[in-house]
């Protein structure tokens, strides 16, 4: 990601398009949820 994406709030959905959580990307390379807890994003290709 880059500096542009660190200013955005992202939504995370499951494979059935159900909302899971919001998150943001930080300048230090972390993904944080709305409680500022680190989360891991996993890419699943089926």
Please characterize this protein's 3D structure.
The structure is a single chain. The protein is an all-beta fold. The chain has strands at 9-13, 19-25, 31-32. The relative contact order is 0.23. The protein is globular. Helices cover 0% and strands 30% of the residues. The protein starts with 8 loop residues before the first strand and ends in a 14-residue tail after the last strand. It has a three-stranded antiparallel β-sheet, with no helix packed on it. It is built from no helices and three strands.
Number of strands: 3
Gyration radius (Cα, Å) is 11 Å
Q: What is the overall pLDDT average?
A: 84
Indicate the low-confidence ranges by residue numbers. Answer: none
- Secondary-structure-derived class: mainly beta
The biggest sheet amounts to:
3 strands, antiparallel
């Amino acid at each position: 990601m880059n500096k542009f994406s660190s200013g955005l709030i992202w939504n995370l959905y499951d494979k059935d398009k159900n909302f899971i959580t919001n998150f943001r990307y930080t300048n230090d390379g972390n993904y944080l949820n709305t409680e500022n807890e680190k989360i891991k994003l996993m890419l699943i290709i089926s």
